[in-house]
């Protein structure tokens, strides 16, 4: 006999995805569904893999006599320690008895925290793991669910270790792993940085020429606000494509990459800092013959000191005013001429 139509939730959690509600009329017996995708993608919750999970969940609901009441979709990580509000909502619904069942594509789509995440549902709620054909309400499936969940956790741990190890080696080799900052380009093969001297169509100067102008002007004690205003007047596009601002100038001046150094995010407001190897030495992210093309350290230090207000203009003696209180009052014992403070002898 066909199973009666029951009220449940179809949950298809996938790595890093959140299910959006797909409401249905509350008449009759219904269920809910959840879908998740591990890697954050541009399509977000409309990614193909998430839609495929939802389709499969709806097929299962039809076969089992359920009506899908709600679908949760996530485009979030199931491994990282981040908030998963859609996952939490699905768990609360099934554990609190709001719905009798939650459908999920596979244990690794549900969570990659192992028994920590699976434990609360065992023997207390019905969660269907479609790929493995496992049901948390069935006693004989309990061991298999725990094993699959721990397998997913172990895989994520190993993958995370491999990624960290590979990234650490690439950093020691001075490879730039992120998106290139404004004014520089990254070689896709060597991952080394070099000045972006490509002049875009309709622009008067290359991005690197703008970077050099920023450092030279600020080092010469030009205010960042005045420089930003000048760039906007000249219609020079900013890194974001919008107008220049004083803080944009400041971020560029303080970024070590323009001097050829590999950087990491620091804990102080996530400002980039020089990456240090195991011996505590900074690592270059440019080829040896490219170092001379980067901003000199002396110029960068002067610019940063100027922004911090530590640069002092050399004092100039106003016309008609003595440089020293005794200037012009003392005479040299050898030549009988007046002594001045700035005389060479």
Oligomer: single chain
- Percent of residues in helices comes to 25-40%
Please give the number of β-strands: 10
- Report the C-alpha radius of gyration, rounded: 32 Å
Shape: elongated
Query: In terms of per-residue confidence, which ranges show pLDDT below 50 for 5 or more consecutive residues?
Result: 1-32, 40-46
Secondary-structure element sequence? EEHEHEHHEEHEEHHHEEH
What is the residue-averaged pLDDT? 78
Strand content: 5-15%
Reported for the largest beta sheet, the result is: 6 strands, mixed
Helix/strand structural class: alpha/beta
Characterize the structure shown.
The chain is α/β, with parallel strands linked by helices. 32% of the residues lie in helices and 10% in strands. It has nine helices and ten strands. The strands form three sheets. Strands 1-3-2-4-5-6 form a six-stranded mixed sheet, with helices on both faces. A hairpin with a 4-residue loop joins strand 5 and strand 6. It starts with 16 loop residues before the first strand and ends in a 38-residue tail after the last helix.
